[in-house]
Amino acid sequence: MLTLYSYPSLFGVADNNGYGLKVFAVLKLAGLPFRHQHIVDASKAPRAQLPYIVDDGETVGDSDTIVAHLARRHGLALDAGLRPSHRDLGHLIGRMLDDLYWVMSYSRWKDDRFWPAFRDALRREHPELTDGQLQDAREFNALRYHYQGIGRYEPDEAYARGIADLRVLAGLIPESGFLFGPNPTSFDAAVYGFLANIHFYAIDTPLKAGLSSHANLVRHCEAIHALVD
């Protein structure tokens, strides 16, 4: 059976990382049977990044590559009816979600105001995690943020980037249905991966407040959540 390897769950969301949750949602929406293995150590993953899948002995990493593999190997029909313009817009949305990822991650590991609550939530839900592991992860992420650039921003400046991304996304999500019609696609799963990790996050960050101000984003998130929960 296909196995998805991704980060642990948090606050009722199947993966506390947007990319892993995206793949989880694609698998659920497509009705493909799979095992979900939660791990923290990504050192043995392709490119040392989560998520990845093992499908009939083949290891595939990177969420976009995984979705393409699933479509090719298993005939996923989620995106079958999309026009080229839909796929192009979905590609642009995915790149914007890459930017949103850094702000979301910053709000958890970098911002001193919210780090203690995040750390304690992880320890409550996953008591096998030690303080040493979490501190090592925080220090590792601090280096990533510095070299990527978001770590050189003051918190209000960082959140302004994410809130701007959410505002643009809110202009693209319809008031009913999904991105490209009445049925969700892999691009809706990608959006859900990030929105759910902000909307259901039980710590009130500026990023969560920014999402909550857009009723259509909340509706979209909760609609996908109901389909994959």
Q: Count the helices. How many?
A: 9
* N-to-C order of helices and strands: EHEEEHHHHHHHH
| Fraction of residues in helix | 55-70%
Number of domains: 2
Shape: globular
Overall pLDDT confidence: 96
Question: What kind of assembly state do the chains in view correspond to?
Answer: single chain
Spatial order of the strands forming the largest sheet: 2-1-3-4
Question: Distance between termini?
Answer: 20 Å
Number of strands: 4
Largest sheet: 4 strands, mixed
What is the beta-strand fraction? 5-15%
How would you describe what is shown here?
The protein has two domains: 72 residues, 3-Layer(aba) Sandwich (Glutaredoxin); 145 residues. Helix content is 57%, strand content 7%. The protein contains nine helices and four strands, in the order βαβββαααααααα. Helix 1 packs across helix 9, helix 3 runs antiparallel to helix 6 and helix 7 crosses helix 9. The chain is globular, with a radius of gyration of 17 Å. The two termini are 20 Å apart. The model has no long low-confidence stretch (mean pLDDT 96).
